Amino acid sequence: MVKIFVITYSTYGHINTLAESIVKGLEKSGVEVGRYQIAETLPEEVLEKMYASPKADIPIINIDDLPEADGFLFGFPTRFGSAPAQFKTFFDATGGLWKAQALVGKPTGFFYSTGAQHGGQEATVFSTLPILAHHGMIFVPLGFTNPHLLDNSELVGGSAWGAGTMASGDGSRQPTPKELAIAETQGENFGNIAKKLAA
């Protein structure tokens, strides 16, 4: 069975909430799902000052386990329009996998969270594409595959690049039903594409 790893870094829980819908969509597509999180790099005292949520009870991903997956969906919040340092630190340690070409051809997608509507959702994805190119991984965008992406009646996170949400500056805004539906669509579509590539 095709195996997809959903790997997240979540500061306030929004990404983990989106990930639940991503997983639901993946399971609808009939793939096996591995759920992991990226290790924290900030000291506990800094996280306390940021009022960060407690870490979810999800296994920390081991870099050496990445080749076991047939594809990946990574979720993380934006930091000044790009991926957070925790995600970059994680991939900075994959030099051995790069040298062995262990991730070449594996489909990969992204979902994300920003503080505001114009917080850099698409830019966050743009900043990660060089990582995929260097590893020879295949970027699988969401496209406009869910009608909520065309909804202008309210704020709706996400884009053709992946599912998303907006947390507000204080983290008080939670993913909406429309955003969760978009995430579920991304999971299901990604799983179907991954199965075709694996075949």
Name some characteristics of this structure.
alpha/beta, 6-stranded parallel sheet, 16% strand
Question: How large is the radius of gyration?
Answer: 16 Å
* Biggest sheet statistics: 6 strands, parallel
Q: What structural class do the secondary elements suggest?
A: alpha/beta
CATH class: Alpha Beta
Organism: Coemansia reversa (strain ATCC 12441 / NRRL 1564)
Domain Flavodoxin-like: 4-190
GO molecular function: FMN binding; NAD(P)H dehydrogenase (quinone) activity
Family: Belongs to the WrbA family.
Describe it.
- This protein is an alpha/beta fold and about 200 residues long.
- The protein has a single domain (about 5-199), classed as Rossmann fold, CATH 3.40.50.
- It has seven helices and six strands, in the order βαβαβααβααββα.
- It is about 35% helix and about 15% strand.
- The chain is globular.
- The termini are close together.
- Strands 1, 2, 3, 4, 5 and 6 form a six-stranded parallel sheet that branches.
- The mean pLDDT is about 95.
- Helix 1 links the parallel strand 1 (about 5-10) and strand 2.
